[in-house]
Specification:
binds zinc ion; 15 helices; six-stranded mixed β-sheet; 52% helix; alpha/beta
Length: 387
């Protein structure tokens, strides 16, 4: 994978290291609505479930590398998503960033971690030793991408109860051991605040996702020409994710609950954006673009597929929120990528002219999508020639 591709995948939030703000618990903006149901009530119930997690984790009878679905840490499900707050997944990401910060890679490649301030006075002697060892074990994760590195993805999947320990490359298993060793410390000192923030995020976002998801899914499938995943997409909320706040890889979405860019109102678009990176949806729009430029007789811009995910999820979120009685949403990109990236000044009018009407038409017809993409390809190639 190239660095370019990595940067693209990381491109949800602000450029460079995103500021992690310690927010108070955001109130529910939309209130609870039918459609989002709670699988495990409040933090109290989650705490009650601790301890049984390891023993109860169902690993029997599954294929190599696969664990049965672990719903211990599921907070809420909607028809299409499973929103989770899981201490192992949170700790795994915290240790990645902590190890990077400890390795002087901060702040370029790690989120600033407020817990690092004064941690020595928070932990007692024994805890300090165990914690330092865990951070040391995570030196293995430095200079590796949580989005593209198979070993880190395997540790993440194991932490989430979605993969076995055996599926982790042997050289990377010390990270899993570090998570188990440091887990009691994490739970004692930092998890209650992280879990509360994760749950507050889910509470403020899931009802709105539930209200529009069926319509958005149908239109996204029509727009990209690929199928939505068969199962609910797991969404792990963590205090620290990647520097820009969210990523999607190997069928799971990870979102920082503390990053200011991942909260409402743009959180709903973010969820559909990250879902668009599931394999069959992403491949469909990429190959559609490739074919359109082949037909138009020119090379496609490398970043167009990702830009179109930005525009498509922004526009569909705007459109469907309005249809469900909530007008006035503006695309996340309107304050972000659209104004930061110079290419957008020519690209945005073209997408508004050819792609928006196609999205509005809600046509799933392949020739409608193909001709919309070809119109975009021709217009962008013409701009390139003039420029
Ligand atoms: Zn993306």
């Amino acid at each position: 994978m190239t660095v370019e591709r990595m940067q693209i995948r990381f491109a949800w939030g602000a450029a460079g290291a995103a500021a992690i703000l310690l927010l108070g618990a955001p109130g529910s903006l939309d209130g609870r609505q039918p459609g989002a149901r709670s699988a495990a009530g409040g933090p109290g119930e989650a705490a009650a479930a601790v301890g049984s997690h390891v023993a109860d984790r169902p690993l029997v009878g599954m294929g190599v590398g696969q664990a049965a679905r672990d719903t211990t840490w599921t907070v809420t499900t909607t028809g299409r998503f499973e929103f989770r707050s899981d201490p192992r997944v949170g700790l795994h990401h915290l240790l990645i960033d902590w190890a990077r910060a400890a390795g002087d890679a901060w702040p370029s490649f790690a989120a600033p971690i407020v817990e690092r301030d004064g941690w020595r006075s928070v932990l007692d002697d024994d805890e300090r030793r165990v914690w330092a060892d865990a951070v040391d074990a995570y030196r293995l994760s430095r200079r590796r991408s949580p989005v593209h590195d198979d070993g880190l993805i395997a540790v993440r999947d194991w932490a989430a109860g979605a993969g076995t320990r055996e599926a982790i490359p042997a050289a990377d298993r010390p990270m899993a051991d570090a998570v188990e060793a440091a887990l009691p410390i994490y739970r004692r000192h930092w998890w209650p605040a992280h879990d509360a923030r994760n749950r507050a995020w889910i509470e403020s976002v899931a009802p709105t996702v539930a209200a529009i998801e069926e319509d958005v899914v149908a239109r996204l499938e029509a727009a990209y020409g690929g199928p939505w995943p068969d199962d609910r997409i797991p969404v792990d909320l963590v205090a620290y994710a990647v520097p820009v706040g969210a990523y999607s890889t190997a069928g799971r979405v990870t979102i920082s609950s503390a990053d200011r860019d991942t909260g409402m109102p743009h959180a709903v678009e973010l969820v559909f954006h990250e879902a668009s990176h599931t394999e069959r949806l992403e491949q469909a729009i990429r190959s559609g673009i490739r074919q359109a430029f082949e037909t138009a007789g020119g090379r496609f811009p490398d970043r167009l597929w990702h830009d179109m995910i930005f525009y498509t999820t922004g526009e569909l979120t705007r459109m469907l929120l309005a249809e469900h009685g909530r007008p006035g949403y503006t695309h996340y990109g309107a304050d972000g990528v659209y104004v930061r990236g110079e290419r957008w000044s020519t690209q945005l009018p073209i997408l508004e002219r050819y792609w928006r009407p196609f999205l509005r038409s809600a046509s799933g017809a392949e020739d409608a999508r193909r001709s919309a993409l070809e119109a975009i390809a021709r217009a962008l190639l013409a701009e390139r020639e003039e420029g």
